[in-house]
Amino acid sequence: MQILSFDYGTKKIGIAVGQTITKSSSPLTVIYTKENKINWDGILEVVNEWNPELIIIGKPLNMDGTDSDIMNLVNKFYKKISNLTGVKCEFVDERLTSFEARQNFKELMIENNKSIKNETVDANAAKILIDNWFNQNVDSI
Q: Which CATH superfamily is domain 2-136 in?
């Protein structure tokens, strides 16, 4: 099964792709928002290109498990992408995914001793969402 994952942000939305057969995932791209407007054309282009059977959306929770301040916007994003695509959508807890992606980014910078685009952090956060989904659904894949 093909999976797309979205790490929603008010300025950038990280996207990753995953495959249940190989249990692998890869960061894909970042879609930028302009003046607080989501680039739905860009998102639909990615969805149409990859034709996923499942869309995962990061659920921004506080460390105590309560909804974060951005949750209302994420709920709107979830509903709209579900309605526009007709693809099954699921939330995945995204606590610490951006932190983990930033740590991975720093390690890559040190390891490669060169500049890597900072936007990879958002796409890598989306990749981590897929990896977490794999870990939670290992028995049903």
A: YqgF/RNase H-like domain (3.30.420.140)
Q: Are 1 and 54 a contacting pair, CB within 8 Å?
A: yes
Backbone phi and psi for residue 15, each to the nearest 5 degrees, phi listed first: -130, 140
Structure tokens at 31: 């879609």
CA distances from 93 to 71, 108, 133 (A): 12, 25, 9
Closest CA to 52 of 18, 6, 28, 22: 18
Percent over 90 (pLDDT), the chain: 60
Does the reported pTM lie above 0.85? no
For residue 75, the surrounding DSSP H or E stretch is: helix 71-85
